[in-house]
TrEMBL record:
Source superkingdom: Bacteria
Pfam families with a match to the protein in the record: NAD_Gly3P_dh_N
Gene3D superfamilies to which the protein is assigned, alphabetical: NAD(P)-binding Rossmann-like Domain
A GO biological process held by the record: glycerol-3-phosphate catabolic process
Name recorded for this polypeptide: Glycerol-3-phosphate dehydrogenase NAD-dependent N-terminal domain-containing protein
Cited InterPro entries: G3P_DH_NAD-dep_N, NAD(P)-bd_dom_sf
MF (Gene Ontology): NAD binding; oxidoreductase activity, acting on the CH-OH group of donors, NAD or NADP as acceptor
Classification lineage: Bacteria, Pseudomonadati, Pseudomonadota, Alphaproteobacteria, Acetobacterales
Stretches assigned to the Glycerol-3-phosphate dehydrogenase NAD-dependent N-terminal domain: 14-104
């Protein structure tokens, strides 16, 4: 159950990386609980209209103090926690940048945990001797959007957060609950969290469904979810009900074609890659990925997160879960 208002523990220094509606609303949520929050926009545009506070409307309303940093290194100075909130297809580049400048031993939460992306950060930090704890959230804590008049609207809070991590699970669980006031349920490693992430599959379903036909998008999403569940069974994993992913935030968010193509392609290529590795047929994902490739005019099968992680690392993850 979500709890708003001041937290009971000591205030934490948090850097939120990603200044879209979800990242900014998550920063405001953490600030509403008394935490010291710095917001960083990877592209610079998301924070240009933010001064010393974020004004939030909707489920939680008010002005909440948030600092803005134009420099990633400065945003990370002295932090206890990092929350990375960008779409899956934009994560790899930002994680590589983060790995070059992160110091100390903060807890890092990546949302969504797309295509094993949090494991990439852990792998890149290792040679630098940085002992950060890295976890992946299946979904961000909030559903938020910009209204036509520019106001930031918080439409929903998650009732629970699902966390995947391969180490320091109690620490990361406590951290997420302290930051956002939402109960956290640990999962069976990062592969579970990545398979449970439905954001990219939802984008793909909306992009491929007939315009103005949300029921067709949901039917297509259910077909993707069936293939996802078959993969989870192949690797011996239990996942939360796929229907809850969007139901608890009031449905699929409005589609943005550029995001949908990037994030949808990433999610489908993840399923296709796992299908090949696990010898599980995923014909709907295969066909949908081919359609998105036609839209994009290029191949989308090379999953950038898995490529950056490396074939040996990916095989190691799958071997640990092979039934």
């Amino acid at each position: 159950m979500a709890e708003t208002g001041k937290g009971t523990g000591k205030p934490l220094r948090l850097a939120v990386l990603g200044a879209g509606p979800v990242g900014t609303a998550s920063a405001a949520l953490a600030a509403s609980r008394g935490h010291d929050v710095t917001l960083y926009s990877p592209r610079g545009g998301g924070t240009r209209h933010i001064g010393a506070s974020v004004t939030l409307n909707g489920l939680i309303s008010g002005q909440f103090p948030v600092r803005v940093s134009a420099d990633l290194g400065r945003a990370l100075e002295g932090v206890d926690a990092v929350f990375l909130a960008v779409p899956g297809h934009a994560q790899t580049t930002l994680l590589e940048r983060l790995a070059r400048v992160l110091t100390g031993a903060p807890g890092v939460l990546v949302a969504p945990a797309a295509s094993l992306s949090p494991l990439l950060l852990a792998r890149l930090l290792g040679p630098r001797g940085v002992s950060a704890a890295v976890g992946g959230l299946v979904a961000p804590p909030v559903a938020a959007r910009r209204l036509p008049d520019g106001r930031l609207w918080l439409g929903a809070l998650r009732q629970r957060l699902w966390l995947g991590a391969d180490a320091e699970i109690p620490r990361l669980t406590n951290l997420a609950e302290a930051l956002f006031g939402i109960r956290v349920r640990p999962m069976e490693g990062m592969l579970s969290a990545s398979l449970a992430d439905m954001s990219g599959l939802g984008d793909a379903a909306q992009l491929l469904a007939p315009p103005g036909n949300p029921q067709a998008a949901f039917r297509l999403l259910r077909e993707f979810a069936r293939e996802r569940d078959a993969l989870a069974a192949r690797f011996g994993l239990g996942l939360p009900d796929s229907g809850l992913y969007f139901d608890e935030i009031g449905g699929m968010p409005p589609m943005e074609p550029e995001r949908a193509l990037g994030q949808g392609g990433l999610a489908l290529s993840f399923l296709v890659t796992l299908g090949v590795a696990g010898r599980v047929k995923v014909p709907m994902a295969e066909a949908a990925l081919r359609m998105l490739e036609v839209f994009a005019g290029r191949s989308l099968r090379a999953n950038p997160s898995l490529l950056a992680l490396g074939e040996d690392a990916v095989r190691g993850v799958l071997r640990r879960h092979a039934a």
